[in-house]
UniProtKB/TrEMBL annotation:
Zn(2+) binds at H49, C74, C83. InterPro entries: APOBEC/CMP_deaminase_Zn-bd, CMP_dCMP_dom, Cytidine_deaminase-like, DHFR-like_dom_sf, Eubact_RibD, Rib_reduct_arc, RibD_C, RibDG_C. This is Riboflavin biosynthesis protein RibD. It comes from Jeotgalibaca ciconiae. Its cofactor is Zn(2+).
Amino acid sequence: MDDQYMRMALNLAKKGKGWTSPNPLVGAVIVKNGKVIGQGYHQKYGQAHAEVNAIESAKEDVAGATLYVTLEPCFHFGKTPPCSNLLVDKKIKRVVVGTLDPNPLVARKGIEKLRSNGVEVVTGVLEEECQKLNEIFMKFIVTKEPFVVMKNAMSLDGKTATVTDESQWISGETSRRQVHSLRHELSGIMVGVETVIKDNPRLTSRITNSRNPIRIVVDSQLRIPSTSKVLTQQDEAKTIVATTRRARKEKIDMLKQMGIEVIVTKEKHGRVHLRELMNILGARGIDSILLEGGATLNFSALEEGIVDKIQFYIAPKIIGGKEAKTAVEGAGIHSLKNVFQIERMTAVMVGEDLFVEGYIAK
Ligand code: AOF
Ligand code: ZN
């Protein structure tokens, strides 16, 4: 039964996707005498926590009830008072927790507070799923660096374009829709300047009721054309251009005049220092980034160790051609003992494409 109610809480938590960043997705369900009497989730950053919404939704007295919550109830006075206090005050009898909160302000303290006030606490119910739901938060709250997802669409033979550079579209419509919902869920979207020059993308989320990620263009010499949609269509989303001291000062000034934020980092192999960039973006509250290529930036990102997760859409097509682009290029590695190892790899079909997901072993 605990699993079943926790699953309900998980599904509620997911409704907040895209709106709570950089705070977590949290769901809560209140059960009394075998009946669900309250439910709630964290709906938007800065607003009420899941537990508060669940208690407010209850039509009967919650005293003596069990509360299921996907994340350890908070302990600190933040934008709202501590939920652990509220649960004690409302005389909740038992609290079932999905996963502990790694936030140093909360970790274990929320649970200790409940236990020391006589509340029965069970932890680790559907723990893996509860952690996966908040994989972004789990990294960001501890490191203050964004969680980076590298996404690629390719043919079965690993090509991302034909020899004449035609790339629209390799993956199917269902896959492309899935990517648009990911753009809604993550705070930032990052591409190399080559991609901007070649495809002139908008990098927005084209699904209804969605928000757009902040666009980040990595451009060490500031070659970005001033007519690019990411520069001219700023009412859709904010754009940040990351560059180095190799950029011409006049171009930096021109971009700034257009209202674009320009970040100048140190150089790494003559290019933007991606680790430094991640630190700067993390300090701005950007907790997650969708890396959408191209192949050169993909390799640099792997080499600098900023990638956490990979998502490859593999279409049932063979393109061929020695000169046709592949997903990850750059200098490549020399010895197999230095590969970027993927762990926890899974595969499912998404429409007609094979969708492969996994995590970079650290
Ligand atoms: C949420 N929603 O449902 C729960 C959270 O900035 P505050 O005051 O809203 O506090 C955010 C912290 O509260 C967050 O980092 C996490 O540790 C804890 N739990 N946060 O936004 C919730 N339960
Ligand atoms: Zn709380």
